[in-house]
Amino acid sequence: MNRLIILFALYLLMSAAVRAETLPYNYYDTTSIPIYLSITELLTTKHPVNEGQFVDFRVVKDVKYKNKIILKSGTIVPGRVETIITSGMNGFPAEIIVDDFQIPNIDSSKLVCTYYKKGQNRCLWVYPLKWALTIIPFVGSLTNFIKGGHAKIKPSDIVTIYYYPNW
Amino acid sequence: MKKFFLLLIMSAIIQPVLAGLHEERMIQQKVDNIGTRILNCNKIQKRIVFAYNQKAKDTWRNRNKTLTSRQIIVFDELYKSTQTDDEVAAMLAREIATVMKSYSGMWGGWIDSAQVALSSKKFETVADKRAVDYMVNAGYNPLALIVYINKTCPQRHQDVIARHNLTSKRLARIYEYITYKYPEYLHDNEYTNNEHYQNFLLTSVDNRRKLEEKIRTKSTDEVDYE
User: Fold this and answer.
1) What is the pLDDT of residues B77-111, one digit of tens each?
2) In 3D, which of B93, B71, B215 has the Cα closest to residue B144?
3) Sign of CA dihedral B183, B186, B189, B195
4) Alpha-carbon distance A161 to A60, whole Å?
């Protein structure tokens, strides 16, 4: 009888353990350290690379955590071109999304690093122009041919990503 | 005896209603869990909520709630086509990508939201691609997105004068995206024995041939899919 009770208690404990699934993340801590980067070579949607390709960034400033340098200025950090959105009709701008930065000795799950760069958004004047021109039949449709600006990440642009050491 | 029959009839009426409510609750729970997992695993620092609605129709007005209220409505007519968690994740990930656009840009995202609503063809492709990333980061198989779209989106005659891309084009672009970014899912393909995936492979032979040509020539140009 005792064995049966022990077995039952063990079963209850084990099933509780199975139910209490541990999540692979804990976003409780709010400490974040900015990491400033700049691209090594111009990246533009005019001459796009393939999505998924890695491009190099360089650390602009030493990154310190608890008075210790964790990342030296000049370190090369590859980042992945996630999505390239080409410019579209009616002034729709092009966009580049870079993510998945691979920083030496830093776990990528502790980074918030999605970086977006947009081209010139011409929709702001193209749509009013389109609606104004609709008075003359078919002329409003001509604005369809106005494309948005190309997105460029220049070496002079500062890309900021965040490192959450306690996540 | 009369009372007994009355009770029997009452329970016969109430039981299906209760069962329906329970089922609705279970679906809502599933949608919440999968949706929140996608948000957490992708470290999306914006608020997005999910609502399963059995009665709402998949109309333009209802869909726009995604952009205006940042609330993703799961329509029953789409939900019933999903068979696995991966496919539910595919459905939600697409909508999350749309909502994320409404959070960026000027005037609290109003300009970008209007752009998405007006240039939906362009953004449809973007949302499909972002959905693949979201799914992979959350541990779901991105091929489920192909399966889900293959099942739910009809093929129109043309997309030149239309607000949406041809479904075959969307599928080909998603396949290309997975080929370049996540080839491991194609090599170790657990969807090989899935009827819907095989149907996609069958209907996309010409488009996949174009992609093979692009890979062979190492081109970076956009492929003109059919």
Assistant:
1) 889 899 999 999 999 999 999 888 888 777 777 77
2) B93
3) positive
4) 12
The CA R_g of chain B, rounded to the nearest whole Å, is 20
Contact B45 A88 (CB under 8 A): no
Rounded to the nearest 10 degrees, what angle do helices B143-152 and B167-181 cross at?
Answer: 180
A124–B111: do the CB atoms touch at under 8 Å? yes
| Rounded alpha-carbon distances, angstroms, from residue A55 to A41, A79, A80, A95, A110 | 8, 5, 6, 16, 20
Give the span between the Cα atoms of B79 and B35, in whole angstroms.
Answer: 13
How many domains are there within chain B? 1
B42 located within any domain: yes
Strand partners for B111: none
Q: Which of A51, A89, A99 sits opposite B177 (nearest CB)?
A: A51
Residue B15, phi then psi, degrees to nearest 5: -55, -50
Q: Does residue B5 fall inside a structural domain?
A: no
| Residues facing A55 on adjacent strands | A79
| Contact between B122 and A92 using a beta-carbon 8 Å cutoff | yes
**Per-residue pLDDT tens over the stretch B163-179:** 788 999 999 999 999 99
Strands A54-59 and A33-39: antiparallel
Place of tokens 């919440």: B32
Task: Tell me if B49 is assigned to some domain.
Answer: yes
Provide residues of B within 8 Å CB-CB of chain A: 40-41, 43, 45, 104-105, 111, 114-115, 118-119, 122, 126, 129-130, 133, 177, 180-182, 220, 222
ipTM above 0.90, yes or no: no
- Report yes or no on B14 lying in a domain: no
Residue B195 structural domain: 24-217
Nearest to A75 by CA among A60, A65, A97: A60
Q: How far is B57 from chain A (nearest CA, A)?
A: 29
pTM of the entire predicted model: 0.84
CB A145 within 8 A of CB A89: yes
Structure tokens at A134: 């609709």
**According to DSSP H, which parts of chain B are helical?**
2-41, 60-63, 65-68, 76-79, 85-102, 110-118, 120-137, 143-152, 167-181, 184-187, 195-203, 205-217
